[in-house]
Specification:
Elements lengths: L31 E4 L2 E4 L18 E3 L2 E3 L1 H8 L22 E3 L1
Antiparallel strand pairs: 1-2, 1-5, 3-4
The structure holds zinc ion (2 copies).
The site of one zinc ion (ZN) has 8 residues, from helix 1.
Length: about 100
């Protein structure tokens, strides 16, 4: 099968990276929010439970969903039966700070 080639006249000046939103699977153009190795639209970077927009605060991931600090603790972190304090083990895979791509 013959292929007719085309000369590429312009070199791409920058690397194009296609980011897909974990929530809607749409392409993210502009601002993307990142947690771990995954990306979200800025407006889809929300707590799976209360829907609060997650920004600079700590973001928790559980089963691929995002939670705010309060809901993550309420749902998944056991409380001490004596003092009702959360028993939060510090694990590096649970606490993920967001950073922003421009
Ligand atoms: Zn999205
Ligand atoms: Zn929440």
């Amino acid at each position: 099968m013959a292929m007719i080639g085309r000369l590429v006249l312009h070199n791409e000046p920058y690397k194009m990276v296609l980011l897909l939103c974990e929530e809607c699977s749409g392409e993210i153009s502009g601002k993307a929010m990142k947690a771990g190795t995954k990306f979200w639209h800025d407006h889809h970077f929300t707590c799976a439970d209360c829907g609060i927009r997650l920004r600079e605060a700590k973001v928790f991931q559980k089963d691929g969903r995002l939670y705010c600090d309060r809901d993550y603790k309420t749902k998944f972190v056991p409380r001490c039966a004596m003092c009702s304090e959360f028993i939060l083990q510090v694990r590096s895979d649970l606490v993920i700070m967001t950073d922003t791509l421009v």
